[in-house]
Design brief:
Helices cover about 45% and strands about 15% of the residues. It is of the alpha/beta class.
């Protein structure tokens, strides 16, 4: 009997340690603390970003001055989601802008929002679940976010007219989300997609960051998947960008900086290889998320040519 109690005690300790480890993974990967929501409107930090600080700050301050209306919807799992809506003429097309991981629309689209408005688009700048003014604290790397995006598409159609035309555009995790949503049943109103520095799969990008931290990704993989299931309530392999775009007929433009140290450009090259109709623009020397600033002339020229093919 004494041996049994010892065994049960050892098993109990192991289970507690395992649970603690899984919680650490959840908080590191999937949880977005409230304090991050304030930081997400400031420029990215680090040696790669320092040269762009002044320009980024100026763009963020300028975009804050653009007038907007608040919009609210309920997600498929009853979370209250928020977006900023910029309307010039409801007869013109709509761009739905999707920001990145632990980011915000005002920062990630500090330049892009003004650009799309200048091209005649109305804009819907969403707050992902767990970000900004939207409900939730858990990030699912595009798995649940892609379903939220369908809700925003339907909101735009229901609110502004069944005949509106829609462009989907996203950056980083948002770039992956606008690709992953292509495995959903989308209305014909969605005409094309522009994705900036997307990752090819949720699990793939988490494992890549794990390796960057000098941790054994193969050993960590099952624990990451289990933590996602238990605490984020998501299957990380439910969807990914690679599978979602493989058979898509929608026009897709992917833009990626060659000096991206977070989401490697090879991920976008792999995405292009999955569908020969995908266009890929690589911006030489651009860090993660800064292609628009690094070579604005090339970025906007290619984006405009792409947009002009699918919108009047």
């Amino acid at each position: 009997m004494e041996i049994l109690f010892i065994v049960l005690g050892v098993v109990g300790v192991i289970l507690v340690l395992l649970l603690a480890f899984l919680l650490v993974i959840y908080f590191m990967c999937f949880y977005n603390p409230v304090k991050n929501k304030g930081k997400s409107q400031r420029p990215l930090t680090g040696p790669q970003y320092t040269p762009f600080d002044n320009e980024m700050n100026a763009l963020i301050e300028n975009v804050k001055k653009i007038s907007y209306e608040d919009a609210w919807i309920r997600s498929y799992d009853n979370k209250k989601l928020h977006a900023k809506v910029y309307i010039s003429d409801v007869k013109k097309p709509f761009a739905i802008l999707v920001h990145g991981y632990r980011g915000s629309g005002l920062r990630d689209f500090a330049g892009g929002l003004g650009y799309y408005i200048s091209q005649g688009f109305n804009a819907i700048l969403i707050d992902h679940r767990g970000h900004g003014e939207s409900d939730g604290k858990t990030i699912t790397f595009g798995i649940k976010e892609r379903k939220d995006l369908v809700s925003w598409i339907n909101y735009a159609i229901d609110t502004y007219g069944k005949d509106i035309e829609i462009l989907l555009t996203g950056i980083s995790m948002g770039g992956a989300t606008v690709l992953m949503v292509l495995d959903q049943d989308l209305p014909p109103n969605v005409k094309c997609v522009i994705s900036d520095c997307p990752f090819s799969s949720p699990l793939g990008i988490i494992l890549k960051v794990t390796e960057d931290m000098h941790l054994p990704s193969k050993l960590c993989k099952p624990f990451i998947k289990l933590s996602a299931r238990l605490f984020a309530h998501v299957n990380l392999e439910e969807s990914d960008s690679f599978r979602s775009i493989k058979d898509s007929k929608l026009p897709i433009l992917i833009i990626h900086g060659t000096e991206d140290r977070y989401v490697p450009v090879k991920m976008s090259e792999e995405l292009k290889s999955s569908n020969p109709n995908v266009e890929l623009l690589e911006i030489e020397g651009a860090p993660h998320g800064l292609s628009f600033i690094k070579d604005n002339a090339k970025y906007t020229s290619v984006a405009k040519a792409f947009i002009d093919r699918y919108f009047k």
